[in-house]
Write a structure and sequence with these properties.
The two termini are 29 Å apart. By secondary structure, the protein is of the alpha/beta class. The radius of gyration is 17 Å and the shape is globular. The chain has helices at 28-42, 65-70, 78-88, 104-107, 138-146, 148-157, 163-169, 179-191, 195-207, 210-228, 231-246, and strands at residues 4-9, 12-17, 49-54, 93-97, 100-102, 114-117, 122-124, 161-162, 174-175. The chain has a single domain, classed as 2-enoyl-CoA Hydratase, Chain A, domain 1 (Alpha-Beta Complex). The chain is built from 11 helices and 9 strands. Helix 3 runs antiparallel to helix 10, helix 5 packs across helix 6 and helix 5 (138-146) packs across helix 10 (210-228).
Length: 247
C-alpha cells in the first residue's frame, strides 16, 4: 500500500498521507511522491484543484525524525522539492486536517488556499524546541497572518494550539465534523469555476509576496539544514525521542 494515496475525483486530485501507524510522519520518499504529484497536477488541464488530507487518527506528526537523522539533508533533498512545488503550485490547494498537525503539518497550511479542520485538531510548530528554525516560509507567512507578537509567542515557546484558536488566527477557514468531505465539496465547487479566472485570481492573491516568501524559504532551508547537523539539535532530538518513549 502506497504511503501517499492518489485519487482523481472528476477534476479534483485527492492526495492522502497514508502512514497511519506512524501518525503519517513524512519521509523523504513521501516528500518525493508529493512533489511529483503536485508538479504533474500543475501541468494537467484535467485537474483543477488539489485536496490534501491524512489517513488514520492524525493529519501528520511532521517530519519522520529518524529518517532525517539517518539521511544527509541537502538543498536538493525531496523535502525541499516538495516545499518548492507547494509554493509554486498555480491551482487551488485545499487541506483537510484532524488530530495532530505537527511541524510541516501546520506550515504547509500557510500555502493552502482553504483549510478545514476537525474540532480535535492540535496544531504545533516545535522547531525551536528541536533546535531548528521554522520552515516552508512560515517565518514570513505566519507573522503576516497573525502578527509579529503572536507568531513570536508560538514559535519561541513551541506551544501547540487548537482548532478554535486556529480559526481565530485565520489559519483555517472552518471547523468541520468531517473536514475531508467539506474540502472535497469545496474543491468540486471551485473545479466548476472558469479555470483561467481561478488561476489568475490565485496568482494575483500571491503576487505581493511570492518572491519574498521564496527568498525566505531559501534562507530557512539553509539554516534548517545546518541546524540538523549541530550538536544542539542532535541533543534536542535525543531528548524528544527519549521523552516520547517514556510517554
Amino acid at each position: 500500500m502506497s504511503e501517499i494515496l492518489i485519487e482523481q475525483i472528476d477534476q479534483v486530485l485527492h492526495l492522502t498521507l497514508n502512514r497511519p501507524e506512524k501518525k503519517n510522519a513524512i519521509t523523504q520518499s513521501m516528500y518525493r511522491l508529493l512533489a511529483d504529484s503536485l508538479n504533474q497536477a500543475a501541468g494537467d488541464f484535467g485537474i483543477r484543484d488539489v485536496v490534501i488530507s491524512g489517513a488514520g487518527k492524525a493529519f501528520t506528526a511532521g517530519n519522520d525524525i529518524m529518517d532525517f537523522m539517518n539521511e544527509e539533508i541537502t538543498m536538493s533533498s525531496p523535502v525541499f522539492h516538495f516545499l518548492k512545488a507547494l509554493h509554486d503550485f498555480p491551482k487551488p490547494l485545499i487541506a483537510a486536517v484532524h488530530g495532530n498537525a505537527v511541524g510541516i503539518g501546520t506550515t504547509m497550511l500557510m500555502h493552502c488556499d482553504l483549510v478545514y479542520a476537525a474540532d480535535d485538531t492540535t496544531f504545533s510548530m516545535p522547531f525551536v524546541t528541536l533546535g531548528l528554525v521554522p520552515e516552508a516560509g512560515s517565518s514570513i507567512l505566519f507573522p503576516k497572518l497573525v502578527g509579529h507578537a503572536k507568531a513570536s509567542e508560538i514559535f519561541l515557546t513551541g506551544r501547540s494550539f487548537g482548532a478554535d484558536e486556529a480559526l481565530a488566527l485565520g489559519l483555517i477557514n472552518g471547523i468541520e465534523d468531517d473536514p475531508t468531505r467539506k474540502a472535497l465539496e469545496i474543491a468540486e465547487v471551485i473545479a466548476l469555476q472558469p479555470p483561467t479566472a481561478v488561476l489568475n485570481t490565485k496568482a494575483l492573491l500571491k503576487s505581493g509576496s511570492h518572491i519574498a516568501v521564496e527568498n525566505v524559504m531559501q534562507a530557512e532551508g539553509e539554516m534548517f539544514r545546518i541546524a540538523l547537523a549541530s550538536d544542539e539539535t542532535q541533543g534536542a532530538f535525543m531528548k524528544f525521542m527519549s521523552s516520547r518513549m517514556k510517554g
